[in-house]
Design a protein that fits this description.
Radius of gyration: 34 Å
Strand content: 15-25%
Shape: rod-shaped
Largest sheet: 4 strands, antiparallel
Helix content: 40-55%
Number of strands: 4
Strand order of the largest sheet: 1-2-3-4
Oligomer: single chain
Number of helices: 2
Order of helices and strands: HHEEEE
Length: 132
């Protein structure tokens, strides 16, 4: 009987020594999974900031186009083709063209820093003097 208890004791020690590094391994795997989640959140935050900035540029460009159109409606006698610098937008310009009598086309363009693409907002309207 003494021989059997020694065998069980040796087997129990063997199982205990085989599982000694499992907790450390589980902890390392948990840290890796947690780190991947944090990196995904940081990437999502960066994308949200980029999209918010692009949205603000589009809203500003639309406002500037409408503002230029309002100026032309207020003084239709002085409607002329011209290019206006737009300091509110990065590398921004507003181009006003007259495609036909009483017609106005306003194109606001800008290029965000680090972006190769030039973005634009186009507005067109008819301006008629004295309701004619």
């Amino acid at each position: 009987m003494c021989g059997k208890s020694n065998i069980h004791l040796v087997a129990a020690r063997h199982v205990a020594s085989a599982q000694q590094g499992i907790v450390l391994l589980e902890s390392l795997i948990a840290i890796v999974i947690f780190s991947m989640g944090i990196l995904a959140l940081v990437g999502l935050q960066a994308a949200m900031v980029s999209n918010t900035t692009a949205s603000k540029f589009r809203a500003d460009a639309s406002y500037i186009a409408q503002q230029q159109l309002g100026l032309l409606w207020a003084d239709p006698e002085h409607v002329a083709a011209k290019i206006v610098d737009v300091p509110e937008l990065p590398n921004g310009t507003a181009t006003i063209t007259i495609p036909g009598p009483g017609q106005v086309l306003i194109v606001v363009e800008w290029q965000p820093p680090g972006d190769a693409e030039v973005h634009n907002v186009t507005t067109s309207a008819r301006i008629i003097e004295n309701g004619v």
